[in-house]
Amino acid sequence: MAVDGILKDAEAKMGRSLEHLEHELLTIRTGRANPALLDRVQVPYYGTPTPLNQLAQVSSPEARLLVVQVYDRGQLGVTEKAIRESGLGLNPANDGQVIRVPIPPLTEERRREYVKMAKQRAEEARVAVRNIRREELHRVQAQEKAGEIAEDQARRAGERLQKLTDTYVAKIEGIAQRKEAEVMEV
């Protein structure tokens, strides 16, 4: 595989790491309601743990309210209990038709906890991007040893990989800072 192919692979993998980070950060609570907040909630659906978003439609009609419309009305109570026990600090109310989940304002201590979580997820993404760089650099070096590419071509590929890595690390920083600002916003 040519050096350009290796660089394209690296960029695609780094892009997936960035998308994963964005999805992970959506599940961290902020002061306002976001349907992705309930993505990780598992509901015991006839004995099988099932993601909430497969059993119900979650919407956010107001800034501090989520509405969960369960497809199978017989599962309202189980779904409500799963949300309550999810560890998100939410207290859902079931009116027989839908489940309303008011989003309480965050305390300062809880905000700091969520910022730490966001920083941890961002660090995991940075590590993933650096690991991708290392793996792709090993591929370039293997091609150089095999005589498939010249030494200067391998060095240039390494420099381009480093620039790509720096670009993605900067994007991760930006995303993490936006999330921190969002969490700390009162």
From TrEMBL:
Pfam families: RRF (PF01765). It comes from the Bacteria. The keyword Phosphoprotein does not apply. SUPFAM superfamilies: Ribosome recycling factor, RRF. Residues 21-184 form the Ribosome recycling factor domain. HAMAP family: RRF (MF_00040). This is Ribosome-recycling factor. It comes from Candidatus Dormiibacter inghamiae.
